[in-house]
Amino acid sequence: MTTARRSDTTRAAILEAARERFAADGYERATIRAIARDAGIDPSMVMRYYGNKEGLFAAASEIELELPELGALPARHIGAVVVAHFLDRWERDDVLTGMLRVGVTNAAGAERMQTIFAGQLGPIALGVCPDPAEAPRRAALVASQILGMALARYVLRLPPAVEMSRDEIVSWLAPTIQRYLTAPEP
User: What is the pLDDT of residue 182?
Assistant: First the structure.
């Protein structure tokens, strides 16, 4: 195995261990030593690649929301597509759940979530809302619904939220998301 591939493998192991540790312990309690132990490497390797805990957290919390292109969709379907997309993302990616946990308990985690949602959801809102000046507010409203459901269903595991089918959640949330993104300002 070449040095570059070994380096990539080590980085990937560190990031996987960091994501799991940050999700399980939160930012404050997660340690470089514990992450290194989980990755099966020496703590100095974590420092070599990421510099410090903040650098590691920033790298581990790089999340691509993989938002769908909404421009070609009929406007009436936007809310349903957005809600279904986020349900799919939360259900296949524990990193998002971990980031949500960290985001509600730690300032660095909250800032990271703000950056992710503003940077990725903001352009979606900008592309579909009637007044571009309203896009940041509308994106924040969408995030409130998406993150609220994620918190209830995947973090707090509130039984009614967990028991709802995917279709039920889409039916309930889609009209609200649709309104947030496409309706005229109240």
Answer: 92
